[in-house]
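Each field is listed here:
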Amino acid sequence: QVQLAESGGGLVQPGGSLRLSCAASGSNFHINTMGWYRQAPGKERELVAIITRGGSTNYADSVRGRFIISRDNAKNTVYLQMNSLKFEDTAVYYCNAAGTQIWLQFSSWGQGTQVTVSS
């Protein structure tokens, strides 16, 4: 099974920045897309940003222009640079990876990392 390890969450002031990282590990797998989702208290999980192996990206309207998603295919790692953070960005951020493993499709989730924006 493909496992994801997230890091980089924490407490930051409004207007500040954080950089999240997510590394995939396992064997006999090929990741096609990676992305970040978030879930705030009392709300459903929502898409933040996704990126394909070729580098195509898509962002939620609420973060476009402030967040940047990138990946290092050689390291099987995806990043989320979060700038100009707002109170409403406070949530648990989850990494996702989708691809194939031994000719079968998979979708894996990380455990989540807490991001808190507070003054």
User: Anything to note?
Assistant: The chain has a mean pLDDT of 97. Residues 11 and 116 are 5 Å apart (CA to CA). The chain has no helices and eleven strands. The first strand starts at residue 3 and ends at 7.
